[in-house]
Amino acid sequence: MALPSSVLLVLVFLKAEVTLSTGSNECVARNFGHGSVVCECNSTHCDSVGSVALPPLGQYSSYLSSMAGSRLEAGRGPVQVNSTRAGLRLSIVPYQKYQKIRGFGGAMTDAAAINILSLSAGAQDQLLRQYFSPEGIGYSVVRVPMASCDFSTRLYTYADTPGDYNLDNFTLANEDINMKIPLLRRAQALSPGPLSLLASAWSAPAWMKTNGALIGKGSLKGQPGGKEHKTWAQYYIRFLEEYAKYNLTFWALTTGNEPSAGRFTNYSFQALGFTPEEQRDWVALDLGPALHASSHPLTHVLILDDNRLLLPHWAKVILNDIHAGQYIHGIAVHWYLDSLVPAEMSLGVTHHLYPEYYLFGTEACSGFSTLNRGVKLGSWDRAENYAHDIIEDLNHYVVGWTDWNLALDQTGGPNWVKNFVDSPVIVDALRDVFYKQPHFYSMAHFSKFLWEGSQRVGVSASQKTHLEYSACIRPDGSVVLIVLNRSSSVIQFEVWDPAVGYISSTAPAHSLLTLAWNTQ
Q1: What is the DSSP string of 453-500?
Q2: Which of 58, 270, 446, 478 has an alpha carbon 20 to 30 Å from 285's alpha carbon atom?
Q3: Among 136, 147, 67, 64, which residue's Cα sits nearest to residue 106?
Q4: Which residues belong to the signal peptide in this entry (predicted)?
Q5: Which residues share a beta bridge with 89?
Q6: In the chain, what is the straight-line distance between the N-terminal and C-terminal CA atoms, in Å?
Q7: 0.70 cut: is pTM over it?
Q8: What would the pLDDT profile of 464-502 be if each residue is shown by its tens digit?
């Protein structure tokens, strides 16, 4: 007997509900007309590749994301004894050893916290799991702004009382205590290992600055070694101490976000200017000694925290000084304007001059350009831009790469100065859903598979190719090769690992592919 159409509709609805509640890991794809799709997630459903274990020796795993709609699509196949005679061969060169990976992640800005907390409790947990849990994408780094930045809803610091050189009135903000700290603790509880927290300040309190304001062109009053510079160093120490009360300890801090902006540009949002000479002397006379004498002497100090086109000059000025250099561990770079200077001229030269200091990517986002501003749901171009930059950075000695806001709303905010940008996760609070953008999956291809302690090794191509690639040997001896195809053609290739044999593979047009295999 045929069922009435109304009954069929109810059955279809119930079936859909069952699929959601059983935790199906398929992407619920939505197309907003920007070249590819987003995956929609809610409190009961989100696609996930899950915990990843490699097949036994003699087989490989593959994970594919593409403009056509694949999202970490898993596959596996045999490692072959003989060459497949593909035209292009990518050969792993294990004896060419380079930098070790620190990790990948994003920033817990005020805006990110506001958006995450705008969701229901179940959807919040889902979003945090996507980033930090073992079934998620393995984020291990979280950048935390010290007080307000443009991705805040108001202007504030932790010491806004004029003349408070002893920081008697230093206090964390509601944004820290009620939003960022609880979310960081939840993220840490989900993570299988300790999160590497990274602190960056945008501006000193206005009363310490030459322009008397948090925004615009302005520097610290006086000179390094003077009372403003010493108080600003102690401000960092107090921040570390206050967060430590919540069992949140920082792996590293930077000397300040984009110091060139506050020195040479009349920024419309929070900034604090330093020249490289001023930053060198502040580290040598104030920040370094203060940190060394504090209860957090092992916290790393990263200089620059600005665009890589300032290298190698910025590094030369600071690291050639033994007084500053003794307190410094690494150099933090942003991705903006990367196309203006070749990676080898900035990152490569800096590494070869100062190999004992690591390079670390601390900020990147899409949608910052006035010609291509804000959120574009489903943009594959932005996924490719992320993957291209990460591969280029890895191949030039960078040890990790940090995205900007963990989550934004559909306008790319909130942002008090309306400097709207894009994010790997976009929240629709009214529907209690969030969208995982294509560049969420770009991050995943690296963060999920390149564990801390993995070491980049050489890869050589048998002929010129449009493919971009980087390979690492992980601490357990397994190999990961990440391949980006930004061309509109399918590219056949084979991988040769002298330890195991040959892998036959295909990079679809506009795709990102991660291959992984055991060697023992």
Answers
A1: T-EEEEEEESS--S-EEEEEE-TTS-EEEEEEE-SSS-EEEEEEETTT
A2: 270
A3: 136
A4: 1-23
A5: 494
A6: 60
A7: yes
A8: 999 999 999 999 999 999 999 999 999 999 999 999 999
Q: Which of these is catalytic: 258, 278, 384, 392?
A: 258
Contact call for residues 467 and 507 (beta carbons, < 8 A): yes
Contact between 216 and 267 under an 8 Å Cβ cutoff? The reply is: yes
In this structure, are residues 451 and 474 in contact, taking their beta carbons and an 8 Å threshold?
Answer: yes
What does the alpha-carbon distance between residue 185 and residue 419 come to, in Å, rounded to a whole number?
Answer: 28
258 is catalytic: yes
Sheet holding 455-461, edge to edge: 73-78, 59-66, 511-517, 479-485, 468-473, 455-461, 89-100, 491-497, 501-507
Locate 122 and state its tokens: 């179940």
The maximal CA–CA distance of the chain, rounded, in angstroms, is 89
Active-site option among 40, 278, 363, 384: 363
Structural domains of the chain, with CATH: 50-99+455-517 (2.60.40.1180), 102-447 (3.20.20.80)
The stretches of 163-312 forming alpha helices (DSSP H) are 174, 181-190, 227-244, 259-264, 276-282, 288-292
The number of residues in the chain equals: 520
Which residue, among 373, 301, 307, has the nearest Cα to 343 in the 3D structure? 307
| pLDDT tens sequence across 10-48 | 333 333 332 322 235 899 999 999 999 999 999 999 999
